[in-house]
Fold this protein.
Amino acid sequence: MVKEATLLGQDASIQIIESFVENQNFIIYPKDFFECFHYLIRFRNPNLYIHASKVGIVSYLLALKLGFPTKFADLMQYAGWVHDLGLIFMPLNIQDSFLRITLSQDSGWGRIYKLHPVVGAEILGKVPALNETPENLTCMILYHHENWDGTGFPNGLKGREIPIGGRILRIADTFVRLVDSPPRGEGLGVKDALFEILKDSKKIFDPLLVSSMIEIEDTLLVWLDLVEKEAEKEVEKIH
């Protein structure tokens, strides 16, 4: 794990998190807590639920590849499940805008859409335990649409100003949308989706995360298929 961790260079987050784990102070939240919110999303918007399920597994796999402790990888999966929690409190046409590659920044709908990380973070921020770790889940949700070059939202953070959890969610969210079949996504193959992401390295995505995603291409392919099948079974239960 230490060898892999050195890949993060100036990114001190992993050293802080490792210290918490070694001292047994790292909080691992009950899985049931996040599954509750995940299922809430399922009832409100099945497409969003399947999307979130896949973002969760991609975030988990990427965190492990980066050398983070398993407990932190688990937390990243939970963050993937609830990263779009704020969307379910918005009109359905705005909820489904996550399917698009671009959204007009000048439109009224676009301005409302940009509030969803803030809404999600506000909800989760009411749970004190979610804010007691150095890389807290509330910040992951708040900053999952920030871009490496500072052009994202809601705060226009740049580079390593963006918490590592937010950066992981950013790339996982986009990757899943690219590989998913319509209406949830663009229907690209895994290799083509990774090529699109590579083009936005250092612009939208942390270049280290882009390299790591490419290295786990085969693993992503297997797990995405498994998670999609399980998520679709859950969706069928409500019809």
Observations:
- The chain is about 60% helix and 0% strand.
